Amino acid sequence: MSRLLTRCVRTCARSRSGQVAITFALVMLPVLFATGAAVDYGRRNAAKAQLDAALDGAVLAVISQKTNSISSTSLLNMETQFRAEAAKVPGVTVTSFNPGTPVSNSATLSLAASYTATVKTTISSLMQVPVMNINGSSSSTRNMFQYINFYLLLDNSPSMGLAATDTDVANMKIATGGCAFACHQHTYDNKGRITGDSQTDFYHVALKNNIKLRIQVLRDAVSALVDQANASMSLSQQYQMEMWTFNDSTTQTRLQAMTPTLSQIKAAAPNIDIAYAYYNQSDNQTDFERAIAVMNTTIPASGTGITASSPIRFLFLVTDGVEDTGGSVTNQSAGFQIQSDRFIGPFSPSTCNALKSKNVRIGIIYTQYLPIYDNDFYNRYVRPYEGQIGPALRSCASDGLYFPVASGGDITAAMLKLFSTAVASVRISN
């Protein structure tokens, strides 16, 4: 094009004929119009890029709001934001804006919008093309936020008085003359006269020697759980919690009813303590079947999770997994009937079926039962099935929500991992 133009100009400069000048003008007009059209088309593309970016921003501003629904007000605000940004683009006039109808299901929320506009031309206007048309669209999809209710069922039977770490176990044995447990003697004196807490029992020995017990670590884990839940909420009151402790068939305590104010759970955490064992009281103080039966009557079926009135529901069970109870149990043949009123055996996975049938998801932290091979009672009544304890709890837990913690392990880390995995499982399954 440039060579032709140069040749034409030189030819016209040498020519003495007016006809050549006319020919030059006729040749140049299409060239000028083509050049002008190219310039205007470039302006049009630049304007479209700016408008598309403005539309993306307006759609994202709405879809990122912390809500599971998009109101008509939000749609109006989206249009207002887009038009305000479009007004900053020279020569542009928005001719229409169409906010699409939000689309939601149990898993995702989607929003789309589109626009049409014109941009003024420069040289192209001489060819009766005063404006160029522009149109664009944008859409975005995100996961629905899920409302979740958590029910904490915490084993506070005497075995949770095990010293928490290997160092604590060693120190506890030194302080007590060989016992790693601070249990089975809590709140009675050696002569059987109930006078309140005996300051010489092993529980108080642990306290006086700053030896941390599993029950204390459990308190810390609950507090850390509350902190993580508060920090990770995307919606107001997205997570609610209720907290129970359990041991024998008559002692199941609701420490805090279901509440959206999670600080109330944290405030109740210091009340998590080892169950009292009085003089001449039966030692059978871990009754899973009756505790979970209470949970089954307490916990409604899981909902969709889309609204606060229809939350997904989780049961978090923290336990050492050994049943020690009176009366009959489901897996009678799995353990030992020591006396007519005392059974010791592994947890029965079938105990969880009623909750699972209501789509209640079960997370379990197994505080692994400490093998005590120098103890005749352990060797006789626990050791024969010790390999079944963990697998039985795993069978109860929902997929991916089983976390064993060995003696000396970090219960708090397991609790936080259980929480994050539970929340992620909701997003994946939906």
From TrEMBL:
Residues 18-62 form the Putative Flp pilus-assembly TadG-like N-terminal domain. The keyword Hydrolase does not apply. Keywords: Membrane, Transmembrane, Transmembrane helix. InterPro entries: Tad_N (IPR028087), vWFA_dom_sf (IPR036465). This is Flp pilus assembly protein TadG. It comes from the Bacteria. It comes from Methylobacterium fujisawaense. The keyword Protease does not apply. The chain crosses the membrane at residues 20-39. It holds the Pfam family Tad.
